[in-house]
User: Fold this.
Amino acid sequence: MTVTIYIDADACPVKDEAIRVAERHSALVVVVSNGGIRPNPHPLVTNVTVPDGPDVADQWIADRIGPGDICVTGDIPLAAKCLEAGGAAIRHNGDAFTQANIGAQLAMRDLMADLRAANPLGAAGGGKPFSRADRSQFLNQLERMVRVAGKN
Assistant:
């Protein structure tokens, strides 16, 4: 079974790492963006540029992912759609989205959006910076996911 790794590429810090894992397993990689990123000429990579618009890249991926495929994304609703389609999803820091955790993550996302909307001063904390440890954890987790997907 050929594994396809879909990358929600806008603001994705681990595109090169995902391609390295794909090379080891002869997996296909589909890099989806609204443009503004340099196309990767690697023979395993297909570069897809979708029109501008909210969630256009997410919907493109959700319409195509299936069992045995993996999506690299930080977008929780996209991850939920990937899981519904029988695929897998992983954050840039290596945290896997699962059937067991996606509901709580969607609820927390909605709660945080409501809290941000209710904050009249607009104060918001950012996430922690992306680290080498996050990159390493991503590589390890994606490697495991590709191995499991390749066995099915």
Remarks:
- Residues 4-151 form a domain with the Rossmann fold fold (CATH 3.40.50).
- The helical segments are 15-25, 56-64, 76-84, 102-118, 132-151.
- The chain has five helices and six strands.
- The CA atoms of residues 10 and 33 lie 5 Å apart.
